Known about the structure:
The protein is an alpha/beta fold.
Amino acid sequence: xxxxxxxxxxxxWIPPVWTPEAGLYAIKKTAETGFDLLEILLPVSMxxxxxxxxxxxxxxxxxxxxxxxxPKNCHIPFHPLEATTLxxxxxxxxxxxxxxxxxxxxxxxxxxxxxxxxxxxxxxxxCQVWSEVAAYAKNLGIRIGIEPINRxxxxxxxxxxxxxxxxxxxxxxxxxxxxxxxxxxxxESNFRDPVLAGGSKLYHVHMTDSDxxxxxxxxxxxxxxxxxxxEIDYSGALVLENFSSEIRELVGPTSxxxxxxxxxxxxxxxxxxxxxxxxxxxx
Length: 283
């Protein structure tokens, strides 16, 4: 059985730079469209009034989870102290928001490469950082999810299997896997096995089709994914992370070089309906 919370990323509504005005708009649109929660991508600057946002979420009866993507100057193998400091700062913001999950690219700076595969020495450094931040998060009642991304954006964690191997080395009860169907479509041989590899450690799933458009209209094998989710009795969040070129500031950061077929609201509504239909199918 699948018993998820349905979420939208702030990127469904606004550019990836949080401002008080844009953030409130994202909260309102998430509520209006019928989602359960909003995934807040925290700014690396941590210029974010978490107390005010917490009140806004409650006023609109919307839950939240937090996301964080490490910048290049926090690439863990090169800058472990800086990465640790930033992740802890994000956890502090999440605690003020009263959310219980922080996930994202918490293994490397997106776009940082050495030209070689990940080394054992790098793995040791990464696991040390994960161990420290997981302990910090546990005291705050927060789980951390590590998101593998595709080979064109990272060389550290690109698939579920290798990511779970490292997560298991840390052996922290609140450290788990965060999958993203866009990256899975590039790196995985199917969509069921990565879900099963995560099992009870699969905390979070980003839902997006192969072209970042309407769910169900691309190349993602949705039946495989939902079959796997049903097999593990998944009860985490399914968070929409597709984009519309209607939001002009997203075009460059998300490589939307062709005009989107849908505007942001239609894309969100249609994708939410698709997720609910698939969950019902695999109950």
